[in-house]
# Entry
Amino acid sequence: MLQGKPIAMRDALLRRIERQMAVDQTIFFVTADFGSPVLDDIRANYPNRFVNVGVAEQNLINVSAGLALEGYKVFAYAIAPFITMRCFEQIRVNLCLLSQVRPINVNLIGVGAGYSYVVSGPTHQCYEDISIMRTLPVIRILSPSDHLSSAAIFDTCDEPGVRYVRLDAQILPIISEIDSNDLNFGFRLLSKSNGNICFISTGYMTHTTKKIINHYTHLSGSITHIDLFDLTNFNRDSLLTLCGGSKLLVTFEEGFGGRGGIDSIFQKIVASDLPKTKFLSIAVSAKYSFEIGNRHELHNLVGIGLEASIEKIDPLLKSIDFL
Amino acid sequence: MLNRMINDFSALTEKANFIWRETLAIHRRSPETRIASSLSPIEIFVTLYYGEILNHFPKDPLSPLRDRFIISKGHGSICMYPILADLGYFDKDELLRVCHTGSFLGGIPDPIIPGYETVNGSLGHGLGVSTGVALALKSQGNIKDVFVLCGDGELHEGANWEAAMFASHHKLDNLNVIIDDNSIAMLGRTNDIVSHGQLHERFAAFGWEAELVDGHNISALYNVFNRMKLRRQNAPKVLIAKTVKGRGVPGLEDMPLSHIMAPKHETLDALLELKK
# Structure
């Protein structure tokens, strides 16, 4: 039973943070001049545990590290490409390296995953963040696909560690309820099948993948669909149990293909554990694009829209005698 | 009183000479260490630690009662090794193993060393992290001070100036920054590379209280550090300490390329023998 109407992922997560700030005096919120309606409440209600560093992402990370060294659980908030790329070395040195020696709790919240800033062009779109963050061995990467999973991620943020939460900037339909088991597994099983075909998607692409599955109505009993939101700590064994016997495994992401995104995670798994499984990556073609259009049009231009994806999947399905 | 202070300064000077010799000896044993930039801040460190400026606890380095001291110019602080060993942060025998397999004392100090707060070496990070620490202490009502040591070369990193704006805007008067202004970066004189102009004026323009001092004059350092600790007037404080890179080593002292120069073993041996 899905509750309520969809809201922005950022508002769902920030509301959890705002409520907890009332009872947990150790939470500090830092923004790089990036807002949200809920952020206004945080700023108004907890002015001593809120700071806006301005458009200064390097300082956002450095200030967050300093606050965390003094015991604060820090939430640092900015636009996704800027909080991951402008300040990458600050994340590496002052969060990741430091966290291996001194316990700190810093949670980076990046808004604007993939093409969610549709008309803002490539500076504000973000197709590299998963790959870039995955190069850092100690950071946990969380990529929810709706506001319920975004809100639930708050439950993973209490323990010391460094986390990157990538959120869509648009209000997206609710995918499904999420419970503590899902959080422990790091994924939601959206459709279970006889295990012949496994689709693994993250973020916005979970919505596209659902549409793709609807297109293949006659294969509904054969396609397992997994919404992967914990890209680093997911339960590998449980996931392998679900897709271990698959003839075809397809990953879907709104990031450049073959450059360290979730396709790289599963290429490795297929190579080591699933030698008989064919693999396909639905990911952004490796080129920047300045075209203007809606998200669906932009996705088809770079090979990850509904029609573009089907065009790539069809030959694979034929090769395993499913078309 | 005057006699006592003169005696104290004399003792601090003797301690600085001891640390200078020990630093040269470390470099003689471990030439991978950066020696020139580690000789300019010796009096600064000695005054802070032995002059009882810093509240610190060698047997409990992360005591909540300590003043926080973040050493941003990591490479140029090898002279901290003999200070920390002498004060009891770790065994003096560790000084014999600097840069050796299994030692925690590397070419660039990291927080695995008791007495170091943060990851150093990559330049331009310490000031920003310190502003976060200072903001946290203020927010918690903690009266302890935050000290930071930066080099003048690393001030070319823009993140420092993001932090400088932030610190003055938030009136972080518990923040005390010391610039070890030896005026030489890696490939030459800092002001020939990209000029800082008058550094104290630049910080003042950013809303900081700025002072200049001879960074090798222990009594001057002692007085200004005490003044900085006492003064909390809604502005962060910076001390531009004019120092000499490679101080006391012929052929290295104040040489534009001193950062990447290594003195000859015979030179070091002669200096160590001379100063016994």
Q: What stands out?
A: Chain B has a mean pLDDT of 95. The radius of gyration of chain B is 18 Å. Residues 23 and 83 of chain B are 9 Å apart (CA to CA).
